[in-house]
């Protein structure tokens, strides 16, 4: 095969999206047309004991959006796309880092060979169930703030009570998470300090903050027996924006991940400083491409969410 578009772009990182990218119909074309994708969807169905594939293809949207379903669904679609990429490009697909936004970090562990597919699916299903339970125990909400820097928002959080920075996504876009009362106060203060816009998110769980501590404790017990392997490709951890490889590092990150903010901007900058010149987002939609463009417009960003996108990379 002649040089692919990826080879021409230089040092590459693969990135995987998180919750919010799910949509009814995702993966259906892949399942119908490609045995590699069908195998993974069937394996997910068998692993979970219900038809996750039908939920992806037919909905309903409300059930697909439930965090305990959305997490394994997005991981499965991303894994199917990755399998097709690997089949199409073979050894020419040579990322130097993998990373994922929130739930996407678990797809990154799978892509790096740190965790098998069945174990990944079961882990994120349980993670979603535990997060849902923690949200019922400690009700809260999340909201995106546009136009304020993280330092200003940290002071807003300190002044507002039980509210924290959940995602530092890119310059000018930060997500807060906390109890409803504290978050409402923080949003008012953010407006007073010049936020261009505040956008409540359509979630019922205050993710990536200390309110998820009950979920973290239970998940810690579960992952003691999960058979992680050293990652063959360094995974950039959400909590620190730095690479991890060893199983014990991964276990520690998975627990910290639930109660810590997603340092996405720092993660992307780390990879760029390490020489990455192109990012390939593998999964439904192209949310991460937009964030990476806001972080650094000198790097190339590509997305694959259909086989046509994959085929174009080999041109």
List the helices and strands and how they pair.
Elements: H1 5-9, E1 12-16, H2 28-33, H3 35-48, H4 52-58, H5 61-65, H6 67-89, E2 97-100, H7 104-111, H8 117-137, E3 141-146, H9 150-160, E4 163-170, E5 173-178, H10 180-192, E6 197-200, H11 213-223, E7 235-236, E8 243-244, H12 247-259, H13 264-273, E9 278-282, H14 287-295, E10 300-304, H15 307-313
Parallel strand pairs: 1-2, 1-9, 2-7, 9-10
Antiparallel strand pairs: 3-5, 3-6, 4-5, 7-8
Helix pairs in contact: 3-6, 3-8, 6-7, 6-8, 8-11, 9-10, 11-12
Written account of the structure:
With 315 residues, the protein is α/β, with parallel strands linked by helices. It folds into 2 domains: 5-136 and 209-313, Malonyl-Coenzyme A Acyl Carrier Protein, domain 2 (3-Layer(aba) Sandwich), CATH 3.40.366.10; 140-200, Malonyl-CoA ACP transacylase, ACP-binding (Alpha-Beta Plaits), CATH 3.30.70.250. 52% of the residues lie in helices and 15% in strands. It has helices spanning 5-9, 28-33, 35-48, 52-58, 61-65, 67-89, 104-111, 117-137, 150-160, 180-192, 213-223, 247-259, 264-273, 287-295, 307-313, and strands at 12-16, 97-100, 141-146, 163-170, 173-178, 197-200, 235-236, 243-244, 278-282, 300-304. It has a 6-stranded mixed beta sheet with strand order 8-7-2-1-9-10, sandwiched between helices. Strands 4-5-3-6 form a 4-stranded antiparallel beta sheet. Strand 9, helix 14 (287-295) and strand 10 (300-304) form a beta-alpha-beta unit. Helix 3 runs antiparallel to helix 6 (67-89). The longest helix is centred in the first third of the chain and has 23 residues, at 67-89. The protein is globular and about 55 Å long. The termini are close together.
